[in-house]
């Protein structure tokens, strides 16, 4: 009988600096908007794209450059505009999950009056959010928007290399080639696959190889 040792949940720290971000066609517009700060035409900027596309990474890049504080959007989050605006700017990651519409409305107005800025990240543009407060809806829909689009193969390959490096996992080129041929083409799939490979590699005390990845992808296939 093969004995499996469960990995301890020590986790890892992803590299979220500007030099770690993979600049490509799908993200160039978003990065260009961040580079224009503070020369934005409105108090708020919305970055949107699918899960795992790099929104949080860009939020940290912006926070480092601007001195912004970062809050993570959640239905239970209650925004405190005076406290948040003690920083030069505010980042609300996953802003489409915030249910405190009144707080967000007051934060927008306070940022405008103080000459400060809000970076919002979301999975969809504000026009698709279920916003009940008309004044908030009009303000967010008037804000500049940058979409982070779908990645091509070189970008997915770069993301995979970065994700493995974040976890200090050494891989060969054959691993990336295999994943590009067999993995779903999305950032979210890349995150899931690398996390699963890390866990199985630790549990079985084996390197990440094509056979190990083949098992992971077969187990994740619903068919």
From TrEMBL:
Gene3D superfamilies, sorted: 1.10.8.60, P-loop containing nucleotide triphosphate hydrolases (3.40.50.300)
GO CC list: plasma membrane
Lineage: superkingdom: Bacteria
One matching Pfam family: Hda_lid
One GO MF term attached to the UniProt entry: DNA replication origin binding
Annotated ranges, domain Hda lid: 165-217
Any one GO biological process: DNA replication initiation
Segments forming domain ATPase AAA-type core: 45-71
UniProt name for this protein: DnaA regulatory inactivator Hda
């Amino acid at each position: 009988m093969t004995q499996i040792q469960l990995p301890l949940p020590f986790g890892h720290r992803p590299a979220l600096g500007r030099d770690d971000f993979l600049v490509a066609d799908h993200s160039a517009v978003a990065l260009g908007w961040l580079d224009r700060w503070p020369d934005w035409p409105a108090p708020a900027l919305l970055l949107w794209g699918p899960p795992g596309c790099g929104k949080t990474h860009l939020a940290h890049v912006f926070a480092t450059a601007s001195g912004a504080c970062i809050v993570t959007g959640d239905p239970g989050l209650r925004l405190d505009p005076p406290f948040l605006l003690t920083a030069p700017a505010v980042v609300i990651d996953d802003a489409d999950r915030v249910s405190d519409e009144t707080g967000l409305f007051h934060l927008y107005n306070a940022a405008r009056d103080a000459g400060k800025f809000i970076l919002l990240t979301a999975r969809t543009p504000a026009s698709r959010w279920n916003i009940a407060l008309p004044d908030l809806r009009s303000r967010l829909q008037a804000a500049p928007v940058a979409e982070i689009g779908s990645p091509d193969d070189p970008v997915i390959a770069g993301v995979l290399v970065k994700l493995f490096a974040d976890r200090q996992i050494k891989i060969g080129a054959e691993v990336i080639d295999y994943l590009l041929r067999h993995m779903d083409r999305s950032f979210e799939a890349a995150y899931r696959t690398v996390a699963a490979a890390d866990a199985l590699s630790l549990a079985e005390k084996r390197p990440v190889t094509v056979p190990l990845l083949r098992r992971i992808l077969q187990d994740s296939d619903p068919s």
